Amino acid sequence: MEMEVNAGKLGKRTGKASFKFNSSNDGVLLRLHHTVKNETEGTVVRIRFTAAGFTANNERLVAADHRDNVFVFDLVGQRFWTVAEQLKRITIIEGLVGGNLVALGSKDGMVFIVDLDEKNCVRKLNAHPGRVVYLASSSPNHATAKLRSKATGISSPADAFERYDRTYLLAASQDCAKLYSREDFAELACLRYGLAADNSFCPNAWHWFGAPTGPALITHSTEGVIRVYRPNFKLVKELNVTRLIELYRKNTPAQTITFERQRSESATDEPDSVELTVKRLTEAMVSSGRRITTAQPTKDGQYYVALCGHSTLAFLALDSWLVCRVVTLSNLFIAQFAFLPAGESAGSGRRARCCTLTVRTTGNDLMLLNFGNDAGLDNNPSVLRPLASGSSGGGVVHNCYKFALAPNGRMLANVLGSGEVLLHNLDSYRRIDAAALAMGHHRKAARNIERPGSGTSSCTGSLGRRQRSPRKAKLEQQINALQVQLSKTLPKHRLLPILREYGEYPAKHRATIWRTLLELPGDRASYAALLNRGSHPCVAAYEQRFAGLDRRTVRNLKRTVSCLAHWCPAFGLIDYLPSFVLPFVRQQPTDALALFETVATVLMNQCQHWFEYAPLEPFNYLAMVENVLADCEPRLMAFYRRNGVAPRTYAVPLMESAFVRCCSGGTDGDNQWLTLWDHVLSNEPCFGVFLVAAYSSLHRGTLLKATADGGSTTVERIFFHQSSAFGDVRRLVGRAHDLMERCTAAAHPRHYFKPFTPLNMPSALPTVNDRWKPPSCDSAASNAVDCFSPAGESEELSAHSTASPTPSGEAANASEKGSSHRTYASFGNFPHKLTEVRRTETDTLRAEQRRLEGKIIELEKLEHGLRERLANDLVRQEHEQRVKAVERNLEEAIAREEQRVEMQRKLLLLHRKQLRERENELSLDLANAKLINDATVRERELDALLNKFARERQREETDLLFAEEDIKLKELELLGRYRTEPDAARVPRPLDQRYQVALEQLAVQKLKLYDEIDRTYSSLGMPAGVNEYAYRTVSELRKVASVAAYGSERPRDKMEERSRERPPGLIGSDSSSQVYADTLRRMEEQVKVLQRLKHDVQRK
């Protein structure tokens, strides 16, 4: 179901809107697209989504478009809404706590903390000046290891802000990374790198993982350097993963996986092949393992997986920091990947080990990839499933632009290049894969039921530990009965006419016919006993030896050769045995039991004389070939003897490869090999001798023509480096039958071969224990066939099979009753003592090799440690040199600074001196100005005083005039009274007595005036003798004033006598007028003196 988000109605819409999930089973839950109607033009505009992400509790999907709108989709309540505030240029979304807080990074370097319940931004962090490339939030699970260490009392060094219960938010750009606390979003640490920080290490991605000391950060560079930081950006570990990958690939080849990719109907073969070729060439140009495209830890925190180039995944164990697995995807080119959390395996509590991840290819295709577990078992095959990319009108397919995985791995948000967002349900894809896998197992089981004896193909070491159900036991009984019936119905004498008529057996029934011809016992117990002994040491290096083969073939080859080596010790010392077994492994990839029994039966019969002188060449067998050639092809044999061509040259290459060299390559070659072995198994055991001779006989013309070139060299080129010249193997078989018929009885190898012996033998024959013991007889001819009875394994197997008291136990015992008395025969036609000696030497050499490998590993670790120490020493020396250079530069800078300070000190003293001089000048000017100011003030005061004196004088003059008039009136009155009164009563009173009080007051005022004049002179700083005239005048004025003051104290009698002597009227009148006139004159003179003094002061 499609859901349309119409942003044009966001202004009118309030609250939340609902939506519904897609009801189809295509794996897409929601298809989100944002459209807006253009009212003016009447068109519909598609708004592109630029980022998507999930909350920490997996319940909400957050998507942002390029118009700064942020949409929130509640996947539980099936409702959606928008954030009230528009957040500009969002490029990345990271869930924080629960389902309400998310962090959004923008191209402008801002980090917005949004509360989805409140629909607004609660915090804005100005993290970087450029684009926010990575947002990584730590979870409480990352601190589990540190919690355990604190619980056990083990403390680890940490900074103050590194609490084990604290969670962090990392915001990184292209040249800087900052760490914030999720509690208050305060900045805790900052790390700068790149060219701006003079640091060549440029991390590409940041991820949190749980370290033993708490949460830690891990990152990588494109050059393959991995660094681990603590939350305070302290470097904890640094290693070169490309070097580790090279060391790993020296000892272990990479696991190669090829996927069968489904191609669309519209695509043609040619463009796809051209594109794949171009990508492979481009991948080859970049040295494999030297460029890290991207990397991230797995969800369980056990591995750090690095993508080398675009098609190689390297698994680095975070506990040991060693590469433990390298996977190469031959036809898949990855640009980005994300691991899904490992789920619980069905029916058990163990974690599933399969690696499931979502990948975005270089063609922007989104796929779900499962490439099995690290052991590569068959129950976890590699699966590649493309996720639905969606199509718009017209069938246009839009590829993935970016994707975001939910924390629980059950959903995935796919942002398409068209701007849409697809919400994928990954559980549905995994359910489909599980159903397909179960169906494949069911079909495989059905095929095994139809094929006789195929029920033993899944026999493993744990077969005897599981109780078989009654249905399975009944099925095994039916298969055994069918096998017996087939052996009776299809005897060898009835199969040979079919083979002669058609030249081969039907491919559909070939497995059944081979089982009938070889009389395979299908003994699961004995085979399980061999499997329980584990891998033989001789198969340890098969991964390197057969690196070009797929893992399944190599695994089957190792299993078969290991069982053969446990069955017969000599087979573990034969170098060409894997080459002999490999064609059988390719033809029987699913039935492990039938494969082992087929090879073992062939070795016991057709190859019974191959190992008589092991590890030397089979001289008796080669002599038989020479006898046949000498009897039937004398000319060719003469050529061989004349040119010194030994039988090993033309016989051993065919024998070692199980006659694969007799067939052409490709699918046709496999069919020819099967046809050839149809004849080998249907004829006598000596038929192989005639095949070798027939191959030389068919090349007789070519060999005889090459005499001039050198016989031995030409023969080696033909038998070792040249494929078969004929395309039909029937010619070879026909020539072999012809040689077998033409061979005389004396030279026929039939006399040296024992008749066909099946692999199982009655238990009454002699048996050997699990640990092989060489018999006392040294004759190879008398030890052709011995009985092998793995007693220990059989008893253990039967004990496990009967341990459970279920009804199926009786059926199981009944089904095995017919085969319990038969065991695998033991192959003994080899030199036992020499084999035992060689096996002892081989074990010794292997132990020595293991010891040397251990020493090599220790030396490599020591070398790595020495290199680290050397690098640290170099870094320390460089640091010391830099420190010395800095100290030297610092000392020079200090010396220059001291010189500068000394110069500044001198300049400061000079400035101080100049300032003191200027200060003195200013002080003098200030004192002069103050004096002038004081003189001005005093002048103003003096002017005011003079004005006051003038006013006083005017008032006194006025008072004197009034007093004079009053005196005149009194005198007139007295004169009239004097005239009227008698003479006796006329006693005249002098004027000085009558005006004594007024004169005294005037004298006091004059004294005050004189004192004021003295103070004025003193304030002006003029000495007493500056103006002698003025001083003299003032002295005279004082004297006059004193005389006037003290003149009134004369005795009254003298004044009375003087008044008697004078006439009363004339004397009084003249004397008083004279006194007043003198007083006025003196006052005028004093005023003039004061005015002259004022003028003198002004001139100064």
UniProtKB/TrEMBL annotation:
Residue intervals passing through the bilayer: none
InterPro entries named among the record's database cross-references: TBC1_cilium_biogenesis, WD40/YVTN_repeat-like_dom_sf
Gene3D superfamilies cross-referenced by the UniProt entry: Ypt/Rab-GAP domain of gyp1p, domain 3 (1.10.472.80), YVTN repeat-like/Quinoprotein amine dehydrogenase (2.130.10.10)
Any GO BP: cilium assembly
Keyword annotations of the record: Coiled coil, Repeat, WD repeat
Record field: compositional bias (Basic and acidic residues): 1049-1063
Keyword Membrane: no
GO CC list: ciliary basal body
Keyword Disulfide bond among record annotations: no
Superkingdom as given in the UniProt entry: Eukaryota
Coiled-coil regions listed: 842-966
Residue stretches of biased makeup (Low complexity): 453-464
Region (Disordered): 448-472, 791-827, 1045-1078
Full protein name: TBC1 domain family member 31
Taxonomic source organism: Anopheles arabiensis
